[in-house]
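User: Fold this; tokens only.

Assistant: Input:
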Amino acid sequence: MKGTERKTKTGFVVSSKMDKTVVVAVERRLRHPIYGKVVRRTPHFYAHDDKNQCGDGDLVRIAETRPLSKLKRWRVVEIVKKAE
């Protein structure tokens, strides 16, 4: 497994109320297999924010990591854009 890239996703922080944890919503659009309509899927990921610097509405990049708790399997790599 040496040299394998970790999965990364980009999404918006929807909750930063927990200590050192943020909830990131990653929107993806896909075409319905039968009807052809573009539908949005928005899974939520719990990510580790070690310095508590993310706020609601921030655009962040998260990367896969080892399990940190029951729900956290991602960590915040960078804040792409701060919310206004």
